[in-house]
Amino acid sequence: MLVSNNSEYAVTVKDLEKRFGSFQAVNKVSFQVRRGEIFGFLGPNGAGKSTTMRMLCGIIIPTAGEATVNGFDVFHQAEQIKNHIGYMSQKFSLYEDLTVEENIDFYSGIYQIPMVEKKNRKDWVVKMAGLDEHRNSLTAILPGGWRQRLALGCALLHKPPVIFLDEPTSGVDPISRRSFWELIYQLAAEGITVFVTTHYMDEAEYCDRLAMIYRGELVAIGTPDELKVKYMNNDVLNLECLDPFGALQAVNGIPEIREAALFGRGLHLAVNDASSSIPIIIKALQERKLVYTRLEKIIPSLEDVFVSIIESRDSSAGL
Amino acid sequence: MVLERLMHMIRKEFIQVFRNPKMRAIVLVMPLIQSMVFGYAVTTDVKNVPTAIYDQAETPESRDLIDRFIHSGYFSVKTIIRSDREIDELLDNGEVAAVLRIPSDFSAKIASGSTAAVQIIVDGTDSNTAGVVLSYAGNIIRNDAIELMQKQIGNQDWEPLGVNLQTRAWFNENLTSRNFYVPGVIAAIVMLVTLLLTSMSVVREKEMGTMEQIVVTPIKPIEFILGKTMPSIILGFVNMIFVTLISVFWFDIPVRGSLMTLFIANGFYLMTTIGIGLFISTISDTQQQAMMSTFFFFLPALLLSGFMFPIANMPEVVQAFTYFNPLRYFLIIIRGVFLKGVGVTILWPQILALFILGTFVLTLSVKKFRKNLA
């Protein structure tokens, strides 16, 4: 099933639109996802992440545009798409009143896994989710991390070439999140295309490529490093000092500083140009007799990039 | 349609229904309780009416009359009173429902050949019971009067002139109200159980978020709908058989007609209830809402069906509504089969009505349901 379509891209989207009445949920979004890639979809709640994903899964029909998943058209081949994708949502969506095995059996049946493979696939899911001792436990009593792994396992029963994960780790503890992502890496290594939405910035860093969506529009796309270089208009300075509050007041009036925020035991300062701003900041600190231990230009985090992109969008839209 | 997917849906539904204590109670315990309640407690038969005797005459004739009341089985003497004041008190606090008062001149009037008066006072709060009590009392007193007359003229065969009414009740010779209510319970139970099962099982998937997972699988809407409704249909039949067995073997309700007719009619009846159940599931987001909507439909449907109150007694506007009530038709069929022993030749209009109503409701609900699913 993995090679049912030989195109280089697992997902292609061109000028995809979705309107609900007069509300434009997704506006002319275009992108492509390569096979075996971990593709992150980033954006605030209500930006259109889930709507786009639902269109690609064949759950809702787009208003306009074109899109294919594993070579199948979302308008006319929703049935084939559903046979070739796995889907897992942020909410645990297996049956809590069924046991681990009963859930797996149910989805095996729904996906029509051939009789001879059923047992193998079941054992594979149980092993992958680490639930060997809990085969007959109701899923309601399992901790969040285990449930998510089981849900992922059920979504992979039919060996889909593409899987869609809608905020898969929300509400899961950090250690489980970490091991969940290790699983995702494994899948990608096996050639499975992973399309994942998230609003955790650290998770976004794990993705091969990222698309940022805001107010229904695609505002940035690229690898995490590309995004940091290409879309960051400001330099970011890290200031470490003994009295961050005092420093914050000291730098507040400087026109070169576009934004200043407390960050750990210091400040992050967004400036137009690092080299010209540093002397001005040092001067301001000395005037107030404030001691600083470090002031340097740093690589912005994805969060800095994201905030910067959204702010420039909002200001160009006059918001 | 893929049979394998359907079978897995149905299997899962059954596991869920029987694993959930609430659903288990609805399916297994409720039919039993309802049949017991309607078999034993709900009865409009009037027996053992608590009665007070106020015998001012205290003569052989008055005691004769009192004996007649006691031996009729309809009246049970709770107390003997000696003053008018006590009548008010006993009726007010509901200790008795009837008071028989025999005036002191009772025997004297009989002896003198004139008409003696006897008073019966009943608690008219429950108008139905009061009416029945009065007619029983009337019969007892009439028989007493005839016997007094026979003694007086010395002719044991004397009968009053005029028209003598000979009564006979067909289909339910002893007018046992249980024979009327218990078969009706089958119809009510089947409706309630299938409405709840269908609507709750769909809404549960919405509420728990499992619906979201189901719609991304290759399952087709028709497989999903059948998977949800087949268990209701099966359990609807199981419940029908279960309550029928209780009726026949526990309560001795006669079954005079063909059970086949009942089965076929039950099938059409289930089309209507499952259609309504599906409809409720499309308008409810939580199981609680589904439960509320079910009772919002079920209670009026029960009241306007002839289950307890005859439709003929209702205002015409209300009667018009009852034509859209599947319970109305199924009750006629059930009582026809159980008590009258009639079959399709007589009951076809009701069976046809259920079929039309069922097709209509089910088509509409499935359409609405598929639209909601997308």
Textual characterization of the structure:
The complex is a heterodimer of chains A (319) and B (374). By secondary structure, chain A is of the alpha/beta class. Chain A has helices at residues 49-56, 78-84, 100-110, 115-128, 144-156, 174-189, 201-206, 224-230, 244-252, 274-287, 302-316, and strands at residues 9-20, 23-34, 38-42, 64-69, 72-73, 85-88, 162-166, 193-198, 209-214, 217-222, 235-241, 257-263, 266-271, 292-298. Chain A has two domains: 9-229, Rossmann fold; 233-299, Alpha-Beta Plaits, CATH 3.30.70.100. Helix content of chain A is 38%, strand content 29%. In chain A, strand 9 (209-214) and strand 10 form a beta hairpin. In chain A, helix 3 packs across helix 4 and helix 4 packs antiparallel against helix 5. Chain B is mainly alpha-helical. Chain B folds into two domains: 3-42 and 176-373, no CATH class; 49-153, abc type-2 transporter like domain (abc type-2 transporter like fold), CATH 3.40.1710.10. The longest helix of chain B has 32 residues, at 177-208. Chain B is elongated and about 95 Å long. The chains are: A alpha/beta (319), B mainly alpha (374). The interface between A and B is medium-sized, with 30 and 24 residues.
How are the elements arranged and paired?
The complex is a heterodimer of chains A (319) and B (374).
Chain A: E1 9-20, E2 23-34, E3 38-42, H1 49-56, E4 64-69, E5 72-73, H2 78-84, E6 85-88, H3 100-110, H4 115-128, H5 144-156, E7 162-166, H6 174-189, E8 193-198, H7 201-206, E9 209-214, E10 217-222, H8 224-230, E11 235-241, H9 244-252, E12 257-263, E13 266-271, H10 274-287, E14 292-298, H11 302-316
Parallel strand pairs in A: 3-8, 3-9, 6-7, 7-8
Antiparallel strand pairs in A: 1-2, 1-4, 4-5, 9-10, 11-13, 11-14, 12-13
Chain B: H1 3-19, H2 21-41, E1 49-55, H3 60-71, E2 75-80, H4 84-92, E3 98-102, H5 106-111, E4 119-122, H6 127-153, H7 177-208, H8 210-215, H9 221-250, H10 259-283, H11 287-303, H12 316-322, H13 326-340, H14 344-373
Parallel strand pairs in B: 1-2, 1-3
Antiparallel strand pairs in B: 3-4
